[in-house]
Amino acid sequence: MQTGSSPDGPADDYALMEAVISLRDADALGQLYDRHCGLVFTLCLRTLQDRAEAEDVLIEVFHELWDRSARYDPVRSSPQTYLVLLARSRAIDRLRSKSGQALPASDHPDLEQAANSANPLEQVELGEDRARVVSALQQLEPAQRQAIECSFYEGLSHSRVARKLGKPLGTVKSSIRSGLIKLREMLRESP
Amino acid sequence: MNCQARRDNILLYAADALEASERDELRGHLATGCPSCTGVLAEAQAILALLPRALASTAPPASARDRLMQRIRAEQASIPSPTPIPVKPVRKTAARQTPWRWVIGASMGSAALAASITLALMWGTYRQGRDVVNSKDLRMVSLDSTTAVSGTHGRIFWDREKNDWRLYVFDLAPPPPGRTYELWFITPAGAVAAGTFDVGKGGRGSLEVPLPPNLGPVAAAAISDEPMSGSQTPTGKIWLQGKVE
């Protein structure tokens, strides 16, 4: 089973989505799952910090892709972007539904850890795409990375990010804004 | 605030990190369909979707796939078969001896249009037809443009169970004044008129036609411009063509 995304896969992703939407081809959905389940599960696990919960959301995401496939608009996003953002949304929904529970501890490798642990050799082994993102993250200030991570993976408001990181609200807002803008410029300039 | 000034806010909006007041303003603007800001939003979402790649990848258990597919198969089994599709009448004509070998040959040599943007352009129409294109024996015929116009292409879904074709064309320019487009079944014996169609917004058009009885093997499909009343044999320029595999 392929757990990552095929580097030469975007065109195939569109063809598979086409088959899911137009032909209701369950095998095509299975292939999309094989291509992206690793990325989606990793994201869900990072947010939820619970394998069983992450597995449930993983299934929910791909089922939603099947059941409400007409919502997908290829003009707006690639299939992978759609899946990742859908997974993020559903995982955060699940996290929030567990109201009253403590926020998950970040004991799963996160943006900061991945960025700090990556060396050039690892980056080659991890693949170009990951190396590109890790490299961009490494160039952020730690405060920017932390704030973006809390916001992106845990869906925390600025004030909750500030509380969690023990930093002034204004600093957090500024870190998220400047960090995201810096990421955009680095990732869009990459080949 | 102009669109250039909204650029950074769109990035924050995509990340759910925009203040409520600014978010409402931006939502209102995006709802207008501003193409510039819609594009900026798409780019921002694509960039944000890259972030999880930095995480150490963890594979889900194999059982997850089984659970997903079992659920989908069970739901598929519980859905009744679709109702027959009403098809438009087709003008039946006698096959004429026409030198179509060049069409077939050229089509065999042309590359399939598989770029994502091309598929994207197809999507809107496909979605409209997804409920009816549900045959267990479906083939697709790609129609490539004979001109250098980027994006012009077509797809034919051949429902082998019902033996009908559903044609979709994209980015096809309006036909010359006083002309219309006509689809042709290309057989070894010649071209057989399948029907005429118009193109609308975005150069999109469609046509549903049954294959005439005793048509015989179809080697290719082609689209030409013809007089408004249609033709018995192709007389105008061939705009799209494709080999039937």
Structure overview:
The complex is a heterodimer of chains A (191) and B (245). By secondary structure, chain A is mostly helical. Chain A has two domains: 94 residues, Orthogonal Bundle (Rna Polymerase Sigma Factor, Chain: A), CATH 1.10.1740; 74 residues, Orthogonal Bundle (Arc Repressor Mutant, subunit A). Helices cover 73% and strands 0% of the residues of chain A. Chain B has 245 residues and is an alpha+beta fold. In chain B, a hairpin with a 7-residue loop joins strand 1 and strand 2. Chain B is flat and about 65 Å long. About 22% of the residues of chain B have low confidence. At the A-B interface, helix 1, helix 2, helix 3, helix 4 and helix 5 of A face helix 1, helix 3, helix 4 and helix 6 of B.
List keywords for this structure.
A: 191 residues; mainly alpha; 2 domains; 10 helices; B: 245 residues; alpha+beta; eight-stranded antiparallel beta sheet; 6 helices; 31% helix
